[in-house]
Amino acid sequence: MTTYDWKQGYARIAERGPFVYGLTNYIAANLSANVLLAAGAGPAIGAASDWTTTFPAGANAVWINTAALMSSDEDSLRTVARTAHQAGTPWVLDPVAVGAGAAKYDDFVRSLLEFRPTAIRGNASELIALAGGAATGKGVETTVDSSAAITAVGEFAARIGTVVAVSGPVDYLSDGSRIVEVPGGDVRLTRVTGAGCALGALTAAAIFATGDALQGAVVAHSAYALAAERAGARTKGTGSFAVALVDELSLLNEVTE
Amino acid sequence: MTTYDWKQGYARIAERGPFVYGLTNYIAANLSANVLLAAGAGPAIGAASDWTTTFPAGANAVWINTAALMSSDEDSLRTVARTAHQAGTPWVLDPVAVGAGAAKYDDFVRSLLEFRPTAIRGNASELIALAGGAATGKGVETTVDSSAAITAVGEFAARIGTVVAVSGPVDYLSDGSRIVEVPGGDVRLTRVTGAGCALGALTAAAIFATGDALQGAVVAHSAYALAAERAGARTKGTGSFAVALVDELSLLNEVTE
Amino acid sequence: MTTYDWKQGYARIAERGPFVYGLTNYIAANLSANVLLAAGAGPAIGAASDWTTTFPAGANAVWINTAALMSSDEDSLRTVARTAHQAGTPWVLDPVAVGAGAAKYDDFVRSLLEFRPTAIRGNASELIALAGGAATGKGVETTVDSSAAITAVGEFAARIGTVVAVSGPVDYLSDGSRIVEVPGGDVRLTRVTGAGCALGALTAAAIFATGDALQGAVVAHSAYALAAERAGARTKGTGSFAVALVDELSLLNEVTE
After folding, report:
1. Smallest Cα–Cα separation from A12: which of A225, A242, A223?
2. Rounded distance, CA C58 to CA C19, Å?
């Protein structure tokens, strides 16, 4: 996939202006919504009343960050996953903090695989744990490098028939047969809360915009990597970096050279 | 209403330092609180324990963003609306995403009209839907221009005896007999999550500060429009714009010319 | 305690990279997580499934902001406090808005003292109310200066055998026998929502890093005061100030002179 490709895919998000619905945790919700808005998508978030049964069917794409359990019940997450699956709405699973030591939570996260997510994204610890490997997480952080997850990612993608993306110094994305590497980014992405979660939301929008799960994941991860590099080049602290990341995502479609 | 008027009304928020209590969604809560603090009000948010029965009576103003249902139950919202109404505390209703396809949610939002909000604010799709028109929303976004809602806004305000404000390229505000236009702002207001929700919170503070529902709504919308213009003039991306919006609101009372 | 001391203690947070788990309100959650990340800690927040029973035991430090009740039930807060207490994990209590008029909420906050918080932080109104004095709060804001709480802070710390820290123009911290003053900061800290809450989270991280409750509280409050001063010196509005505060916390460990 050339650089040209993903930029076109990213531009299609703003052209199509998809309605993207998500359940996520309240730490990451604001940044996730702003990342989607920056890309030109229209987000709605939360299990308010019958949103869970209507929005996943009406939306163009859906994402579920399982830490949404901190303010919504298991039924709500299951309903959103089931409704998206049955309606044919592409949906992204972000199994945040799976494998960090909360066994009941981990079991619930795994149970959502029944509704066949279109893509799954997380850090190395999370994806290794979700794929059935050892628990290596420390809260929501990974203790292993993304490269350690390459094999697990490919096998896991093949086994459950979905696209799997692992974030790290280099991101690795696989549909079970191919593995795509997305280098770049900035280490400060790991020091901005919800930056990974927001990438899951952006992946959902890009899958709709491109009409393809792997291509959408590549678009979202590539846009994120470039925006993070640009943000990193013009800021020092982590607060400014987070603001600049959203800026750069909102300006990516402008001709800059 | 002259420019002079609304600036005086805005300055009165900081002079009086009202305690403004709200229920809102967790995506918008942070920005709403920071907008209130920027204007000089003291916010508290959330249905924590008996806050719902005590704070609406003790507060100077209240706002309810109905997407608060994503982390609070219907009883909490109803209790806050009822308590504010019975205590004579002015309260603003923000019917976010009404008319976007979630019928049960829409019914609940309409049921809050029983507690006679002092003002209602939303985008064109939301206010048309709330007034009984066709559903045209796409999640939390409008698909129609604010000008399309002028008639509905005026009639709706007259019918239920409240002030209604519709946000858009031009904001239209009505008390049922007059319609006030507030031009200005910046298109990036639609690309910052919770910007509209925070305007509802600011409207509540301004209604208390001015002692008048329509005047308060004009103050809040005018301050927002000018702050957004200033923020837009000195930023490019949507992340910086959001930060600058809060900056400008916090600096509006300083003599600048 | 010299300037040298607290900077060393602050640097130890990044060196040790503690996993800090918290329950807090959704207005402050994002800033709290970003402040912890800026300091080099790894935060996880929220009562998602069995996180409440596992994370307080596995974490290096815990904080509870009682406004977490706006999205979690009393049992969750109690479970986190009890689990931290029994596991010997240091934990910080932030009794936000206690004494503001919600008696049932106040009673619940006081009931958490049973689990012997390692430190308590709040503003003057909150700490006076928690110590059994008159209710003087206005929502989440204080109506009295921190100096008015000096005596109450010292006596309260001695009585319940914990470290107590009151935020204000000058912060006062006591372990019941000594009182430490931390001057500095910036008045805009009171105009950024969740700034105080995030200080509670940082205090938890610093207590773990230093291995001492009073020293940890001094480290966190001193770092905050210096970061706020630096942020205040290079920004005007409250939006930029909040971003710069996180920046400065993330840059404090860099050699700057």
Report:
1. A223
2. 8
Residue C257 lies in a domain: no
Taking the alpha carbons at both ends of chain B, their separation in whole angstroms is: 21
CB C72 within 8 A of CB C91: no
DSSP B112-124: GGGG--SEEEEEH
pLDDT of residue B108: 98
Say if residue A257's pLDDT is above 60. no
Q: What range defines the domain where residue B112 resides? A: 3-251
Q: What pTM value is reported for the model? A: 0.97
Domains contained in chain B, number: 1
Of the candidate ranges A149-153, A166-170, B91-95, B133-137, the one whose mean pLDDT is the lowest: B133-137
Read off the pLDDT band of C149 (50, 70, 90).
confident
Which of these ranges, A92-101, A135-144, A184-193, B231-240, has the smallest mean pLDDT? A135-144
- Residues of B with Cβ-Cβ distance to C239 under 8 angstroms: 34, 38, 242-247, 250
Above 80 in pLDDT, residue C2? no
* Rounded mean pLDDT, C36-44: 98
From the CA atom positions of chain B, what is the Rg in Å? 16
Residue C93 β-bridge partners: C64, C120
**What does the pLDDT average to over A186-209?**
97
Interface membership of C89 toward B (CB under 8 Å): no
Q: What is the CATH number of the domain that holds A209?
A: 3.40.1190.20
Answer whether B246 touches C (CB < 8 Å).
Answer: yes
Which structure tokens are listed for A20? 């993207």
Burial class (CB within 10 angstroms; exposed 0-12, middle 13-18, buried 19+) of A99? buried
Q: What share of chain B in percent tops pLDDT 90?
A: 88
A257 occurs within a structural domain? no
Closest-CA residue to A246 (of B235, B17, C145, B223): B235
In a domain, A14, yes or no: yes
Half-sphere exposure of A131 (CA within 13 A, CB side): 30
pLDDT, mean of residues C159-176: 96
- Select from A192, A235, A243 the Cβ nearest to the Cβ of C37: A192
Distance from the Cα of A183 to chain C's closest Cα (Å) equals 23
pLDDT at res. C145:
86
CB A252 within 8 A of CB A225: no
Quote the CA–CA distance of A53 and A76 in Å, as a whole number. Answer: 9
Per-residue confidence (pLDDT) for residue A17, from 0 to 100: 97
Q: Which pLDDT score, from 0 to 100, does residue A142 have? A: 86
Query: Mapping DSSP to helix (H, G, I), strand (E, B) and coil, where does residue C212 land?
Result: coil
The 3-state DSSP class for residue A115 equals helix
Q: How far is CA A17 from the centre of its chain?
A: 18
Residues 6+ apart with CB under 8 A from C43: A139, A140, A193, C20, C21, C22, C32, C33, C36, C37, C201
Structure tokens at A53: 């049964």
What confidence score (pLDDT) does residue C3 get? 53
Contacts of C55 in chain A (CB under 8 A): 100-102, 139
**B136 touches C at CB < 8 Å:** no
- List chains adjacent to chain B, taking adjacency as at least 3 C-beta pairs closer than 8 Å: A, C
Q: What is the mean pLDDT of residues C149-168?
A: 93
Is C51 in Cβ contact with A239 (below 8 Å)? no
Record the tokens describing residue A83, joined without a space: 């409704």
Q: What is the mean pLDDT of residues A23-46?
A: 97
Measured at the CA of C247, the angle between CA C246 and CA C248, to 5 degrees, comes to 95
The neighbouring-strand residues paired with B77 are: none
CA angle C37-C39-C45, nearest 5°?
40
Q: Render pLDDT for B1-28 as a digit per residue (tens, 0 to 9).
A: 455 589 999 999 999 999 999 999 999 9
In whole angstroms, give the CA distance from residue B237 to residue B126: 27
**For residue B134, is it within any domain?**
yes
Strand residues in A95-228 grouped as ranges (E): 119-123, 163-167, 171-174, 179-182
CA-based nearest residue in chain B for residue C191: B37
